[in-house]
Amino acid sequence: MAAWGGRIRAQIQRAAARAPGRGTVTLALSVGRDGTLRGAEVAVASGNPALDRAALAAVRAAGRFPPAPASVTGAVHRFALPLRFD
């Protein structure tokens, strides 16, 4: 499970290479077993609205994520993902 989350985080970070600022944004993500993004919202804002918007845009631009490992049993997995931008 941690490896899957790490792969998702890396894919988002690549899509957000030019974030407008520095800080940490925690996103609430819903990802289907097949890797399809089902939902995304800011769970904990960074204090910089432009950075928060860029984080959400990066999630949407990242495309389909890797499929879930066999240990994920539900059709959709929901989790919080902190993203740090330097």
Automatic annotation (TrEMBL):
<dbReference type="GO" id="GO:0055085">
    <property type="term" value="P:transmembrane transport"/>
</dbReference>
<dbReference type="InterPro" id="IPR037682">
    <property type="entry name" value="TonB_C"/>
</dbReference>
<keyword id="KW-1133">Transmembrane helix</keyword>
<dbReference type="GO" id="GO:0016020">
    <property type="term" value="C:membrane"/>
</dbReference>
<keyword id="KW-0472">Membrane</keyword>
<protein>
    <recommendedName>
        <fullName>TonB C-terminal domain-containing protein</fullName>
    </recommendedName>
</protein>
<keyword id="KW-0812">Transmembrane</keyword>
<dbReference type="Pfam" id="PF03544">
    <property type="entry name" value="TonB_C"/>
</dbReference>
<feature type="domain" description="TonB C-terminal">
    <location>
        <begin position="1"/>
        <end position="86"/>
    </location>
</feature>
<dbReference type="InterPro" id="IPR006260">
    <property type="entry name" value="TonB/TolA_C"/>
</dbReference>
